[in-house]
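Our platform keeps sequence and structure together, in a single record for each protein. Such a record has a labelled line for the sequence and another for the backbone structure tokens. Nothing more is needed to write down the fold, since each code stands for a local backbone conformation. For reference, a complete record is included directly beneath this paragraph:
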Amino acid sequence: MDFWVKQPGDKPLFEELMWSRPENRAQAGKLLIIGGNLHGFAAPATAHQVAQKAGIGTSRVILPDALKKIAGSILESVEFAPSTPSGSFSVKALDQFLTDTQWSDGVLLAGDLGRNSETAMLLEKYVAKSGHMLLTVTKDAVDYFKDTPKLLLDRPYTTVVLSFAQLQKLASSYGFVQAFTFEMGLVQLVQALHDLSENTAAAVIVKHLENIFVAYKGQVSSTKLAPDTDIWRVETAAKAATWYLQSPSKVFEALTTAIVDL
């Protein structure tokens, strides 16, 4: 299995990337973070903080305007887009999403979007219209594509950071013949990720069996983690988005390094 590399949990496997990153923040990329609903915006707020620590040049957050009174004085670099009566993003937010996307070098759908049919329509239209923009999707944003998995998995320049249960549903809905099961061993999982990534365009990052796996174009990396690592998707997605846009010619290496971003 020469397509599989193992990375220590405390040391980057591709150390050369650590030294080739932009030293000037003005050259370190612009990340647009989208997420939140009336009942919570922890995911986009956390993503903003983590991206800053990971070395992003500039990050901007878009929240539903239902949060304006709550979040307006808490978050820096925040904008507000039209929301539904229930406080999720409305389809009217599409123009603002696309305008801010033109400003950015990469976009992170960070989650906490709630469950709303109008938001589902918005996200499908946005992903379809965002072209070749670097896109990272995580948390409940992934769930919005469970019935349209090709919009994510067949989209170039895309990273999906998801739970193992979400991977099961997405791969099954996509029509991937190999089942991802909780009973499968490490070698079986690596082989399945290899096969999936050979037949899809997106990069996949998933946590299982006390490892975080990166799969992209047939290559797979595994990074051993502490057994009690529970909170990981938003933080990992923010780091992955940052590293990807700073090293777009070395996607697999960048995403693998993001897991142990020091």
About this structure: The mean pLDDT is 93.
